[in-house]
Design a protein that fits this description.
The protein has 10 helices and 12 strands. With 252 residues, it is of the alpha+beta class.
């Protein structure tokens, strides 16, 4: 990352919000994403660890997860849906899971994140604190336009865990980050389907609800994934079609 020109550890949310308006301010929870970023301009770190945003609580349909809850906390907390716990465990090695936070994952929006794809399938809602109030956004809306994060602090992520959740993935090894991953959730009103590794950010099906394996495959086939050393665009699209079909089949 760039040179740290200032470090702040506010004790209140209002104090933190005042600091994130500074031009070079970068809010952090565990700091794993900032530390891994390429070097650039000087940054002012706003450390959110003193704000008490790490609580995980049950909700009628799932769980409310504080933004600074670590991936390891999520993986260990039984009130979190089992599929989300497993995705949190798979997101990073144990040394990073103890520091990396759900807020950092959402703010970074890594395109191959199975964890974010799972949150999308679980209708995740992100709460953003701003100087003029609080806003809730669906995760897919926020990932589609990261400008929504400007001058805000993520405070929590609410996850729906009702229904059956299944994932299908392909990676170089079973423990590796998937090249493409499909996560489906069969709820009372239909199937949600999310994919990672096929666009600049993990994506939720445009129609939100998928009615069949054929519909899942048709949606995946229309995607235009970026290619890289792990797989060409055509290869990723072919994986998306197959994995989307498998995931939907597992929940229907």
């Amino acid at each position: 990352m760039g040179t740290v020109s200032a470090y702040w550890r506010p004790a209140t949310l209002d104090g933190a919000l005042a600091l994130v308006h500074r031009r070079a301010a970068v809010p952090i929870g565990g700091g794993t994403k900032v530390n891994a970023a390429p070097s650039g301009d000087p940054v002012e770190i706003v450390d959110l660890q003193a704000l008490g945003l790490d609580r995980i609580e049950p909700t009628p349909t799932g769980a409310s997860v504080g933004a600074t809850a670590t991936l390891q906390q999520i993986a260990d907390e039984m009130v979190v849906p089992a599929a989300v716990r497993e995705a949190a465990r798979r997101e990073a090695p144990s040394t990073l899971r103890a520091a990396a936070t759900i807020g950092g994952c959402v703010a970074t929006g890594h395109w191959e994140s199975e964890f974010l794809a799972t949150l999308l399938a679980c209708d995740a809602m992100v709460t953003l604190a701003q100087s003029h109030g609080v806003q809730e956004l669906p995760l897919d809306v926020l990932l589609g336009d990261h400008r929504s994060l400007r001058d805000t602090i993520i405070t929590r992520v609410c996850i729906a865990g009702d229904g059956i959740i299944a994932a299908a993935r392909t990676g170089r090894t079973p423990a590796d980050r998937p090249i493409v991953c499909a996560v489906a959730r069969g709820a009372a009103d239909g199937v949600r389907l999310a994919l990672s590794g096929v666009a600049a950010r993990p994506v939720l099906s445009r129609t939100a609800l998928i009615r069949s394996r054929a519909e899942a495959a048709a949606w995946a086939e229309r995607l235009d994934p970026p290619g890289d050393f792990r797989g060409s665009s055509a290869y990723r699209r072919a994986l998306a079609v197959t994995l989307a079909r498998r995931a939907v089949e597992a929940v229907t």
